[in-house]
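pipeline/complex-builder :: batch 7 item 3
reading input block
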Amino acid sequence: MQAQDWYVLWAIVRKEWRIFLRYPLNALLRIADPLIWLTPVYFMSLSFSVNGRAPGFEAFTGTHNFLAFILLGNIVGSYISAVLWNMGFSLKQEMEQGTLESLWLTPNSPWLHLIGRSTVSVLVTGLNTLGVWLAAYLLFGFEITSALGPALLVLIPMVIALYGFGIAYAGIVLYLRDAVTLSDIGTYTLQILSGINFPVTALPRPLMIVGLTLPMTYAIDAIRALLIGTTPLVAIEVSLAIVLISMFVFLILGRVVFERIDTRVRKMGTLSTH
Amino acid sequence: MTANDIRTAAAVLRKDLIVFRRYPTWIVSLLIWPALFPAMYVFMARTLSGPGGQAVAAFQSVSGTDDYIGFLLFGIIPWMILNTTLWDFGTHLRTEQVRGTLEATWTTPASRLSMLIGASIRQLVISLLFLTITLFMACLLYGFELRGDPLTLLGLLSLSLLPIIGLGMLFASLILWMKETSSLVVIVRGIFMAFAGMTYPIEVLPARMQILSKALPLTHAIRAMRLVGLIGVGWNDVKYEVMMLAILSVVFIAMGLMAFRLAERHGQSTGTLGHY
C-alpha cells in the first residue's frame, strides 16, 4: 500500500464513523437489542432451574454458568450479524444513495472501501460487545474471571475470517442488488448452526453435521472452553488450527469472489441500478 | 360504515394483496420464518432440559406442563404475529408516505379510516395465512401436537388479534409522526418479547416486572392459549384471560383510533404529510 492509499483509507474510516455517530438512537439500540433478545432466554433458563442451578444445561455443557455461555456465543454471533448486515449492505447503501459509480470512477481501489468499512464495522461491533457486557454485568451480575488473552487468540482470526467472507458477500449483494431476506435468514441460520445459544450437540444429527463444518462453531466452542470451562468438542489446539486455516481460506476466497463479481457487474453496467 | 366506506376498504385490501404478491421474497419469508424462528428457542430448551430430560420436572413445576416445545410454540406464534403486524401494518402509512402516495390518496373524498381498516383486514388475512403455515411447520418439524379444542383456540386467537391490530394502528400513527421505523419496531417488539412470557411462565419474573407483563395483551393471549392447547381446559377456566383480552382490545383499538386522528390532524395542520 502506498502513502496515498493510507490517506484514502483514513478518509473512508472517518466518513463511516461520522455516519455512525449521526444516528445516536440506532447506536444505543445496537446495545439494547442483544439485551432484549437475552431477557427471554435468561428467564427461560430460570424456569428449568432448581435452587439457582440449571441441572439439564450443566449435564449438557459441563458448566453451570448459563449466562456466560450465552453471552460468549453472542459475541461471535454479533460479528456474524455485523458481517452480513454491515458489509453486505455497505455497497448497497452507496448504490441507493447514487454514490457508488462516483466512488468507482476515482483512481482508488474498491478494496480500500471494503477495508475501511470492515475496520469501522469491527470497531463498532467491538464497542457494542463491551456495552453489552457492561449492561449484562449491571443487570444480571455477569462476570468473566479467566484470562482473556488465549480467547482473543481464537476470536481475532475468527473475526478476520468472517470479514473475508463479508467481502465475498458484499460482492454477492452488488450482483443481487437486494438481499434483505438473504441477510436476515442467513444471519439467523448461521447463528443456530454454530450454536451461539446452545451446544451444537443439542441439534438434530443432520443439522449438527452442517454445524460442525462451520469454523465459527469451533471458535465459539474454544472460547467457551477457555473462559468458562465447558467441555470442548475437540482439543482447543485443533479448534485454533481450524480457525487459522479458515482465516486464510476466507480472505483469499473473499478477494477472488469480489473481483469476479465486480468485473461482471461493470460489464453488465448495473452498478447504479437498484 | 356506509357502502362507500366498505368499497374503499375493499379496494385498499385488494391493492395491498396485489402488492404483496408482487414481492416473491416476502412470500419466501412467510414460508421460511415459521420453520426457522422457533428453532433457536426449541434447541435452547432442549439444552436446558438436559440430555436425559433431568430438568423437565423443574419446568413442569412452574409451567404446569412437561411439553416444553408446545409451551414455547404457543408463546412464539403470537409474538411472531405481533412482529409481522408491526413491520407490515405498523409501517403501512409510513410506506405510503415514502412512496409519495399518502397525500394523493388522502386528498380523495374516500374515508381515511376505511383505508386503514382495509389495510388492517389485509393484515388479518396475512396473519391467518402465517398462522396456518406455522402450525403446519410446527407439527412437521417439532412434533407439535394440539391437545385442546381447536374451535376454542381459534376463538381465543381471533380475540388476541384485536389488541394486536389496535397496537398496529397506534404504531402506524406514531411512525407517521416520528418518521422513524426500525428503532420503534425494535423497542416495541422487544418489550413484548421480554415481558409477555414468550419463552417462560411469567411466574419466574420478579414481582415488579410481572405488573408490566400483565398490562400486555399478549401475556393473557399466550397464557390462555397454553391453558387450552396444552392442558385442555375450556372457556370457563380462561375467563380472566378472556376478560383481560377484551378490555385490552377496547383500550388498544381506542388508542389506535385516537392516535390515527391526532396524526392525521398533525400532518394536515403542519403540512408534513409528504415529508420523510
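note: The mean pLDDT of chain B is 88.
queue -> next item
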